[in-house]
């Protein structure tokens, strides 16, 4: 029997590197807001049962008016407030899910598997979601990633190379990042206690939280080079190229 899967969909960034007047998730691309692409992927997915959408408190009304009213989603359970850092946004999303589910735990009507998604990744596919889901069932975690196309060098603070990893062992991490819900929920609770009043500079994604506070090794699964995260104007141009190519297909 399929496990109950919930997504935390992050759309709380300010898009400073995009240089736009509005947060990038609200930018119109191909006739709809950037965040709508990820929302539609969630809506049509047979893997994901529901979703917590995370956005800045001041953008909540705009999210409802300019996105959810235009692109309704039956899977969005709630809109949670974004935090000052990505990890705090995820924690807020988990807290909102816990409040909705109350005492329901995994296997008793609650979420079994939690996915964390970037709202700025417009080309999420069902195949990637399926691979992450199967990875969680087999290994306890499933983090989408692609092998690095470039040689990577590690340098010191002065720019001198200190080591060169074998390229075949280097992966570029993406989302989705999926885990058994109870494990990642408890890991985030531990993280909040450990970083209370501190800046979590060494926590860059959910895999970091899992590794540190669950103390298990993360399993990588194949993502896609087209599963790009739109962060800069160059990424936006690439997204438009991919959309044009797919419309011609």
Q: If you had to describe this structure to a student in words, what would you say it looks like?
A:
By secondary structure, the chain is an alpha/beta fold. The protein has a single domain (5-248), classed as Spore Coat Polysaccharide Biosynthesis Protein SpsA, Chain A. 35% of the residues lie in helices and 21% in strands. It contains 7 helices and 11 strands. The strands form 3 sheets. A 7-stranded mixed beta sheet has the order 5-4-1-6-10-7-11, sandwiched between helices. A two-stranded antiparallel ribbon has the order 2-3. Helix 2 links the parallel strand 4 (50-55) and strand 5 (76-81). Helix 5 (181-194) packs across helix 6 (206-213). The longest helix is centred in the middle third of the chain and has 16 residues, at 86-101. It is globular and about 50 Å long. The model has no long low-confidence stretch (mean pLDDT 93).
